[in-house]
Amino acid sequence: MHPLLKDHILPLRRYALALTSDADQSDDLVQETLARAIEGAGSWDPRRDLRKWLFGIMHNTHASGRRRCSLEKSVAGEIAAMSSDSAPASQFTSVHFSETIASLMRLPDDQREVMVLIAVEAFSYKDAAEMLNLPVGTVMSRLARAREALRAEQGHVERRRPDEPSHRPDLRLVR
Amino acid sequence: MPEPTIQEPVSELDLMAYVDDQLDPERRIAVEEHLSRHPILAAQVMDDLRRRDELRLALTEAASTLSDHRLELPTQQLGRRLSLRIALHKNRRAIAASILVGVGWVAHSMFGGLGVDPASAAHILPVYADEAVEAYRTVLVEARHEVDLPGAGERERIGALAANAGTSIPLPHLPAAFAPVASHLVPCDSGNAVQMLIHGPDEELLTLFAVETDKFSIEPPHAEAVRDVNVAYWQSGWFAYVLSGTGDPKELLSLAFRLSR
Description:
Chain A is built from 8 helices and no strands. With 175 residues, chain A is an all-alpha fold. Chain B has 2 domains: 53 residues, no CATH class; 189 residues, 2-Layer Sandwich (Phosphorylase Kinase, domain 1), CATH 3.30.200.
Protein backbone atom coordinates (compact mmCIF):
# COMPACT_ATOMS: atom_id res chain seq x y z
CA MET A 1 0.00 0.00 0.00
CA HIS A 2 1.34 3.45 -0.88
CA PRO A 3 2.66 5.20 2.26
CA LEU A 4 0.59 8.32 1.59
CA LEU A 5 -2.63 6.34 1.48
CA LYS A 6 -2.14 3.36 3.75
CA ASP A 7 -3.90 5.05 6.69
CA HIS A 8 -6.81 6.25 4.61
CA ILE A 9 -8.03 3.09 2.94
CA LEU A 10 -9.63 1.49 6.00
CA PRO A 11 -11.52 4.69 6.94
CA LEU A 12 -12.68 5.02 3.33
CA ARG A 13 -13.86 1.43 3.43
CA ARG A 14 -15.78 2.08 6.66
CA TYR A 15 -17.44 5.10 5.14
CA ALA A 16 -18.25 3.22 1.94
CA LEU A 17 -19.80 0.38 3.93
CA ALA A 18 -21.94 2.82 5.85
CA LEU A 19 -23.01 4.59 2.67
CA THR A 20 -23.86 1.49 0.64
CA SER A 21 -24.63 -1.07 3.37
CA ASP A 22 -23.28 -3.72 1.07
CA ALA A 23 -19.80 -5.22 0.89
CA ASP A 24 -19.65 -5.46 -2.94
CA GLN A 25 -21.11 -2.05 -3.55
CA SER A 26 -18.78 -0.53 -0.99
CA ASP A 27 -15.85 -2.09 -2.80
CA ASP A 28 -17.04 -0.53 -6.06
CA LEU A 29 -17.48 2.81 -4.33
CA VAL A 30 -13.92 2.77 -2.98
CA GLN A 31 -12.65 1.85 -6.45
CA GLU A 32 -14.58 4.62 -8.12
CA THR A 33 -13.47 7.10 -5.49
CA LEU A 34 -9.83 6.22 -6.12
CA ALA A 35 -10.35 6.48 -9.88
CA ARG A 36 -11.86 9.95 -9.48
CA ALA A 37 -9.08 10.96 -7.12
CA ILE A 38 -6.48 9.81 -9.66
CA GLU A 39 -8.21 11.88 -12.30
CA GLY A 40 -8.42 14.89 -10.02
CA ALA A 41 -5.03 14.53 -8.32
CA GLY A 42 -3.76 17.56 -10.21
CA SER A 43 -6.26 19.71 -8.33
CA TRP A 44 -5.22 18.51 -4.88
CA ASP A 45 -3.31 21.13 -2.95
CA PRO A 46 -0.78 19.42 -0.66
CA ARG A 47 -1.60 21.97 2.03
CA ARG A 48 -5.11 20.56 2.18
CA ASP A 49 -6.10 17.67 4.42
CA LEU A 50 -5.81 14.57 2.23
CA ARG A 51 -8.31 12.56 4.29
CA LYS A 52 -10.94 15.26 4.00
CA TRP A 53 -10.32 15.55 0.28
CA LEU A 54 -10.74 11.80 -0.22
CA PHE A 55 -13.88 11.63 1.90
CA GLY A 56 -15.34 14.55 -0.04
CA ILE A 57 -14.71 12.70 -3.29
CA MET A 58 -16.36 9.59 -1.87
CA HIS A 59 -19.39 11.56 -0.75
CA ASN A 60 -19.75 13.14 -4.20
CA THR A 61 -19.18 9.85 -5.99
CA HIS A 62 -21.81 8.17 -3.88
CA ALA A 63 -24.24 11.08 -4.22
CA SER A 64 -23.95 11.11 -8.01
CA GLY A 65 -24.31 7.32 -8.11
CA ARG A 66 -27.41 7.60 -5.96
CA ARG A 67 -28.88 10.21 -8.27
CA ARG A 68 -28.15 7.95 -11.22
CA CYS A 69 -29.75 4.99 -9.47
CA SER A 70 -32.83 6.83 -8.41
CA LEU A 71 -33.31 7.96 -11.98
CA GLU A 72 -33.24 4.35 -13.00
CA LYS A 73 -35.58 3.61 -10.10
CA SER A 74 -33.48 0.61 -9.27
CA VAL A 75 -32.91 1.40 -5.63
CA ALA A 76 -36.54 1.25 -4.58
CA GLY A 77 -36.12 -2.27 -3.31
CA GLU A 78 -32.92 -1.51 -1.49
CA ILE A 79 -34.39 1.49 0.26
CA ALA A 80 -37.35 -0.57 1.35
CA ALA A 81 -35.04 -3.25 2.65
CA MET A 82 -32.91 -0.73 4.45
CA SER A 83 -35.78 0.95 6.23
CA SER A 84 -37.44 -2.28 7.26
CA ASP A 85 -36.50 -4.34 10.28
CA SER A 86 -34.79 -6.88 8.06
CA ALA A 87 -31.78 -4.61 7.68
CA PRO A 88 -29.02 -6.59 6.04
CA ALA A 89 -26.72 -7.09 8.98
CA SER A 90 -26.05 -10.56 7.68
CA GLN A 91 -24.13 -9.08 4.75
CA PHE A 92 -21.26 -8.45 7.08
CA THR A 93 -19.11 -11.20 8.32
CA SER A 94 -19.04 -9.37 11.61
CA VAL A 95 -21.23 -11.21 14.05
CA HIS A 96 -20.55 -9.49 17.33
CA PHE A 97 -21.44 -6.06 16.15
CA SER A 98 -24.08 -6.86 13.60
CA GLU A 99 -26.83 -5.28 15.68
CA THR A 100 -24.80 -2.09 16.04
CA ILE A 101 -24.30 -1.86 12.29
CA ALA A 102 -27.89 -2.83 11.59
CA SER A 103 -29.18 0.05 13.69
CA LEU A 104 -26.82 2.41 11.90
CA MET A 105 -28.13 1.15 8.57
CA ARG A 106 -31.69 1.78 9.60
CA LEU A 107 -30.95 5.51 9.88
CA PRO A 108 -31.94 7.63 6.90
CA ASP A 109 -29.04 8.18 4.48
CA ASP A 110 -28.41 11.80 5.44
CA GLN A 111 -28.29 11.04 9.17
CA ARG A 112 -26.16 7.96 8.73
CA GLU A 113 -23.64 9.89 6.72
CA VAL A 114 -23.07 12.61 9.34
CA MET A 115 -23.06 10.01 12.09
CA VAL A 116 -20.21 8.13 10.44
CA LEU A 117 -18.21 11.20 9.47
CA ILE A 118 -18.36 12.69 12.94
CA ALA A 119 -18.79 9.85 15.42
CA VAL A 120 -16.71 7.23 13.64
CA GLU A 121 -14.24 9.24 11.60
CA ALA A 122 -13.93 12.09 14.12
CA PHE A 123 -14.24 14.91 11.61
CA SER A 124 -15.08 18.31 13.02
CA TYR A 125 -18.60 19.63 12.45
CA LYS A 126 -17.11 22.27 10.20
CA ASP A 127 -15.16 19.82 8.06
CA ALA A 128 -18.16 17.50 7.74
CA ALA A 129 -20.33 20.45 6.73
CA GLU A 130 -17.81 21.49 4.09
CA MET A 131 -17.56 17.98 2.72
CA LEU A 132 -21.32 17.58 2.52
CA ASN A 133 -21.79 21.12 1.29
CA LEU A 134 -24.24 21.87 4.09
CA PRO A 135 -24.52 24.54 6.78
CA VAL A 136 -22.96 23.46 10.10
CA GLY A 137 -26.36 23.81 11.77
CA THR A 138 -27.90 21.26 9.41
CA VAL A 139 -25.09 18.81 10.11
CA MET A 140 -25.59 19.20 13.85
CA SER A 141 -29.35 18.76 13.69
CA ARG A 142 -28.98 15.63 11.54
CA LEU A 143 -26.50 14.29 14.03
CA ALA A 144 -28.83 15.03 16.94
CA ARG A 145 -31.69 13.23 15.17
CA ALA A 146 -29.43 10.28 14.38
CA ARG A 147 -28.42 9.98 18.02
CA GLU A 148 -32.01 10.19 19.15
CA ALA A 149 -33.00 7.47 16.69
CA LEU A 150 -30.17 5.21 17.85
CA ARG A 151 -31.14 5.71 21.48
CA ALA A 152 -34.77 4.95 20.74
CA GLU A 153 -33.75 1.97 18.66
CA GLN A 154 -31.61 0.61 21.41
CA GLY A 155 -34.45 0.94 23.89
CA HIS A 156 -36.58 -0.98 21.43
CA VAL A 157 -33.93 -3.65 20.96
CA GLU A 158 -33.41 -4.03 24.67
CA ARG A 159 -37.11 -4.47 25.21
CA ARG A 160 -37.15 -7.03 22.42
CA ARG A 161 -34.21 -9.00 23.69
CA PRO A 162 -35.90 -11.21 26.28
CA ASP A 163 -37.44 -13.16 23.35
CA GLU A 164 -33.98 -14.02 22.11
CA PRO A 165 -31.35 -16.13 23.77
CA SER A 166 -29.32 -13.51 25.57
CA HIS A 167 -26.98 -12.91 28.46
CA ARG A 168 -29.74 -11.23 30.42
CA PRO A 169 -30.51 -14.27 32.65
CA ASP A 170 -27.19 -13.55 34.37
CA LEU A 171 -28.90 -10.59 35.95
CA ARG A 172 -31.31 -12.80 37.92
CA LEU A 173 -30.60 -12.34 41.54
CA VAL A 174 -29.95 -15.30 43.74
CA ARG A 175 -31.55 -14.69 47.05
CA MET B 1 -14.25 40.22 45.66
CA PRO B 2 -13.69 38.78 42.18
CA GLU B 3 -16.77 38.70 40.04
CA PRO B 4 -17.91 35.17 39.33
CA THR B 5 -17.45 34.36 35.65
CA ILE B 6 -20.73 34.23 33.86
CA GLN B 7 -20.85 30.98 32.04
CA GLU B 8 -23.38 30.03 29.45
CA PRO B 9 -25.63 27.24 30.63
CA VAL B 10 -24.77 23.83 29.24
CA SER B 11 -27.15 23.02 26.40
CA GLU B 12 -28.20 19.86 24.58
CA LEU B 13 -25.82 20.90 21.79
CA ASP B 14 -22.93 21.18 24.23
CA LEU B 15 -23.59 17.63 25.35
CA MET B 16 -23.57 16.43 21.77
CA ALA B 17 -20.41 18.37 21.01
CA TYR B 18 -18.87 16.84 24.14
CA VAL B 19 -19.55 13.33 22.85
CA ASP B 20 -18.11 14.30 19.47
CA ASP B 21 -15.02 15.83 21.01
CA GLN B 22 -15.64 19.21 19.43
CA LEU B 23 -15.27 21.40 22.51
CA ASP B 24 -12.31 23.42 23.67
CA PRO B 25 -10.87 22.33 27.03
CA GLU B 26 -12.61 25.12 28.94
CA ARG B 27 -16.03 24.18 27.68
CA ARG B 28 -15.31 20.49 28.24
CA ILE B 29 -14.65 21.20 31.87
CA ALA B 30 -17.89 23.18 32.13
CA VAL B 31 -19.80 20.26 30.61
CA GLU B 32 -18.12 17.76 32.93
CA GLU B 33 -18.99 19.89 35.92
CA HIS B 34 -22.57 20.04 34.73
CA LEU B 35 -22.66 16.27 34.22
CA SER B 36 -21.33 15.61 37.70
CA ARG B 37 -24.40 17.35 39.04
CA HIS B 38 -26.84 15.62 36.68
CA PRO B 39 -26.35 11.85 36.85
CA ILE B 40 -29.18 11.09 34.42
CA LEU B 41 -27.61 13.30 31.76
CA ALA B 42 -24.20 11.80 32.57
CA ALA B 43 -25.58 8.32 32.00
CA GLN B 44 -27.02 9.40 28.67
CA VAL B 45 -23.69 10.91 27.60
CA MET B 46 -21.88 7.74 28.65
CA ASP B 47 -24.38 5.78 26.63
CA ASP B 48 -23.74 7.93 23.54
CA LEU B 49 -19.99 7.55 24.01
CA ARG B 50 -20.34 3.79 24.29
CA ARG B 51 -22.49 3.67 21.16
CA ARG B 52 -19.93 5.78 19.31
CA ASP B 53 -17.13 3.39 20.30
CA GLU B 54 -19.21 0.38 19.34
CA LEU B 55 -19.91 1.89 15.95
CA ARG B 56 -16.22 2.55 15.37
CA LEU B 57 -15.32 -0.99 16.31
CA ALA B 58 -18.14 -2.58 14.36
CA LEU B 59 -17.44 -0.68 11.15
CA THR B 60 -13.69 -1.19 11.49
CA GLU B 61 -14.20 -4.89 11.96
CA ALA B 62 -16.56 -5.15 8.99
CA ALA B 63 -14.25 -3.07 6.78
CA SER B 64 -11.15 -5.04 7.78
CA THR B 65 -12.59 -8.26 6.44
CA LEU B 66 -12.68 -6.90 2.89
CA SER B 67 -9.81 -7.71 0.59
CA ASP B 68 -7.61 -4.85 -0.57
CA HIS B 69 -6.46 -6.77 -3.62
CA ARG B 70 -8.46 -4.73 -6.13
CA LEU B 71 -7.29 -1.50 -4.56
CA GLU B 72 -3.56 -2.05 -4.76
CA LEU B 73 -3.05 -0.74 -8.25
CA PRO B 74 -5.26 2.38 -8.05
CA THR B 75 -3.81 3.15 -4.62
CA GLN B 76 -0.29 3.02 -6.01
CA GLN B 77 -1.27 5.18 -8.94
CA LEU B 78 -2.99 7.74 -6.75
CA GLY B 79 -0.14 7.72 -4.25
CA ARG B 80 2.33 8.35 -7.05
CA ARG B 81 0.37 11.31 -8.32
CA LEU B 82 -0.10 12.77 -4.87
CA SER B 83 3.61 12.35 -4.07
CA LEU B 84 4.36 14.20 -7.25
CA ARG B 85 2.03 17.01 -6.17
CA ILE B 86 3.82 17.19 -2.83
CA ALA B 87 7.23 17.13 -4.48
CA LEU B 88 6.18 19.83 -6.92
CA HIS B 89 4.74 21.91 -4.14
CA LYS B 90 7.93 21.62 -2.10
CA ASN B 91 10.04 22.44 -5.10
CA ARG B 92 7.87 25.24 -6.36
CA ARG B 93 10.37 27.93 -5.48
CA ALA B 94 13.26 26.01 -6.88
CA ILE B 95 11.24 25.28 -9.99
CA ALA B 96 10.25 28.92 -10.40
CA ALA B 97 13.93 29.81 -10.22
CA SER B 98 14.88 27.12 -12.69
CA ILE B 99 12.24 28.35 -15.15
CA LEU B 100 13.82 31.77 -15.07
CA VAL B 101 17.27 30.36 -15.57
CA GLY B 102 15.87 27.89 -18.11
CA VAL B 103 14.50 30.77 -20.13
CA GLY B 104 17.84 32.46 -19.77
CA TRP B 105 19.49 29.28 -20.92
CA VAL B 106 17.36 29.22 -24.08
CA ALA B 107 18.06 32.91 -24.63
CA HIS B 108 21.73 32.19 -24.19
CA SER B 109 21.71 29.51 -26.84
CA MET B 110 19.80 31.77 -29.21
CA PHE B 111 21.58 35.05 -28.69
CA GLY B 112 25.06 33.94 -27.89
CA GLY B 113 25.39 34.22 -24.14
CA LEU B 114 23.72 37.50 -23.34
CA GLY B 115 22.72 37.91 -19.73
CA VAL B 116 23.16 34.49 -18.18
CA ASP B 117 26.31 32.79 -17.07
CA PRO B 118 26.28 29.52 -19.03
CA ALA B 119 28.16 27.69 -16.29
CA SER B 120 25.39 28.29 -13.74
CA ALA B 121 22.60 27.77 -16.24
CA ALA B 122 23.96 24.41 -17.32
CA HIS B 123 23.78 23.09 -13.76
CA ILE B 124 20.12 23.81 -13.27
CA LEU B 125 17.75 21.22 -14.54
CA PRO B 126 14.80 22.26 -16.63
CA VAL B 127 11.44 21.88 -14.84
CA TYR B 128 10.47 18.86 -16.85
CA ALA B 129 13.68 17.03 -15.90
CA ASP B 130 12.89 17.62 -12.25
CA GLU B 131 9.44 16.17 -12.74
CA ALA B 132 10.91 13.24 -14.65
CA VAL B 133 13.25 12.45 -11.77
CA GLU B 134 10.35 12.47 -9.30
CA ALA B 135 8.35 10.18 -11.56
CA TYR B 136 11.36 7.88 -11.91
CA ARG B 137 11.79 7.71 -8.14
CA THR B 138 8.19 6.64 -7.62
CA VAL B 139 8.69 3.92 -10.21
CA LEU B 140 11.75 2.70 -8.31
CA VAL B 141 9.76 2.60 -5.08
CA GLU B 142 7.06 0.60 -6.80
CA ALA B 143 9.55 -1.78 -8.33
CA ARG B 144 11.06 -2.30 -4.89
CA HIS B 145 7.64 -3.16 -3.51
CA GLU B 146 7.00 -5.43 -6.47
CA VAL B 147 3.88 -3.64 -7.52
CA ASP B 148 2.50 -5.00 -10.76
CA LEU B 149 3.21 -2.41 -13.35
CA PRO B 150 0.20 -1.86 -15.56
CA GLY B 151 -0.11 -3.93 -18.69
CA ALA B 152 2.60 -5.34 -20.87
CA GLY B 153 4.09 -2.82 -23.20
CA GLU B 154 2.43 -2.91 -26.54
CA ARG B 155 3.57 0.06 -28.55
CA GLU B 156 -0.01 0.79 -29.64
CA ARG B 157 -1.13 1.27 -26.08
CA ILE B 158 1.79 3.51 -25.32
CA GLY B 159 1.16 5.48 -28.49
CA ALA B 160 -2.51 5.82 -27.54
CA LEU B 161 -1.53 7.10 -24.13
CA ALA B 162 0.76 9.63 -25.66
CA ALA B 163 -2.04 10.68 -27.99
CA ASN B 164 -4.36 11.11 -25.03
CA ALA B 165 -1.96 13.40 -23.25
CA GLY B 166 -3.93 16.31 -24.65
CA THR B 167 -1.65 16.44 -27.57
CA SER B 168 0.17 13.73 -29.39
CA ILE B 169 3.64 13.34 -27.94
CA PRO B 170 5.94 11.64 -30.42
CA LEU B 171 7.92 8.89 -28.76
CA PRO B 172 11.27 7.81 -30.14
CA HIS B 173 11.85 4.27 -31.35
CA LEU B 174 13.82 2.21 -28.90
CA PRO B 175 16.79 0.09 -29.98
CA ALA B 176 15.97 -3.63 -30.09
CA ALA B 177 17.68 -4.44 -26.79
CA PHE B 178 15.39 -2.06 -24.92
CA ALA B 179 11.87 -3.24 -24.16
CA PRO B 180 9.06 -0.89 -23.19
CA VAL B 181 7.19 -2.56 -20.32
CA ALA B 182 4.54 -0.05 -19.43
CA SER B 183 3.61 3.54 -19.66
CA HIS B 184 1.26 5.94 -18.01
CA LEU B 185 0.32 9.58 -17.93
CA VAL B 186 1.96 11.69 -15.29
CA PRO B 187 0.21 14.94 -14.43
CA CYS B 188 2.61 17.81 -14.13
CA ASP B 189 2.40 21.55 -14.01
CA SER B 190 3.52 21.95 -17.58
CA GLY B 191 0.70 19.72 -18.86
CA ASN B 192 0.41 15.97 -19.09
CA ALA B 193 3.51 13.95 -19.64
CA VAL B 194 4.00 10.35 -20.63
CA GLN B 195 6.31 8.18 -18.65
CA MET B 196 7.49 5.01 -20.34
CA LEU B 197 9.11 2.25 -18.33
CA ILE B 198 11.87 0.48 -20.16
CA HIS B 199 13.85 -2.63 -19.43
CA GLY B 200 17.40 -2.26 -20.62
CA PRO B 201 19.65 -5.08 -21.94
CA ASP B 202 20.80 -5.93 -18.38
CA GLU B 203 17.25 -5.87 -16.98
CA GLU B 204 17.89 -2.45 -15.50
CA LEU B 205 14.88 -0.19 -15.19
CA LEU B 206 14.91 3.07 -17.13
CA THR B 207 12.21 5.58 -17.71
CA LEU B 208 11.67 7.85 -20.64
CA PHE B 209 9.68 10.91 -19.71
CA ALA B 210 8.20 12.93 -22.55
CA VAL B 211 6.40 16.23 -22.22
CA GLU B 212 5.26 19.04 -24.47
CA THR B 213 6.93 22.35 -23.68
CA ASP B 214 5.88 25.87 -24.47
CA LYS B 215 9.14 26.71 -26.24
CA PHE B 216 10.36 25.38 -29.53
CA SER B 217 13.97 24.41 -29.27
CA ILE B 218 16.51 21.86 -30.37
CA GLU B 219 18.86 20.89 -27.56
CA PRO B 220 21.20 17.91 -27.74
CA PRO B 221 21.22 15.52 -24.74
CA HIS B 222 22.81 16.76 -21.54
CA ALA B 223 23.69 14.38 -18.72
CA GLU B 224 23.32 15.23 -15.11
CA ALA B 225 23.05 13.45 -11.77
CA VAL B 226 20.21 14.38 -9.46
CA ARG B 227 21.33 12.79 -6.21
CA ASP B 228 20.94 9.06 -6.83
CA VAL B 229 19.35 9.34 -10.26
CA ASN B 230 21.19 9.93 -13.53
CA VAL B 231 19.33 11.77 -16.21
CA ALA B 232 19.96 12.67 -19.81
CA TYR B 233 17.59 15.26 -21.20
CA TRP B 234 17.11 16.84 -24.58
CA GLN B 235 14.59 18.83 -26.47
CA SER B 236 13.37 18.10 -29.92
CA GLY B 237 11.14 20.88 -31.23
CA TRP B 238 8.18 21.37 -28.89
CA PHE B 239 8.87 18.18 -26.96
CA ALA B 240 11.31 17.55 -24.18
CA TYR B 241 12.56 14.09 -23.21
CA VAL B 242 14.25 12.86 -20.08
CA LEU B 243 15.85 9.47 -19.81
CA SER B 244 16.36 8.45 -16.17
CA GLY B 245 18.20 5.54 -14.65
CA THR B 246 20.61 4.54 -11.95
CA GLY B 247 23.20 2.89 -14.19
CA ASP B 248 26.28 4.24 -15.91
CA PRO B 249 25.71 7.91 -16.86
CA LYS B 250 27.83 7.56 -20.02
CA GLU B 251 25.68 4.72 -21.32
CA LEU B 252 22.58 6.68 -20.49
CA LEU B 253 23.88 9.65 -22.45
CA SER B 254 24.81 7.51 -25.44
CA LEU B 255 21.33 5.95 -25.45
CA ALA B 256 19.87 9.47 -25.22
CA PHE B 257 21.88 10.44 -28.31
CA ARG B 258 20.54 7.41 -30.19
CA LEU B 259 16.97 8.22 -29.20
CA SER B 260 17.26 11.91 -29.97
CA ARG B 261 18.19 11.32 -33.58
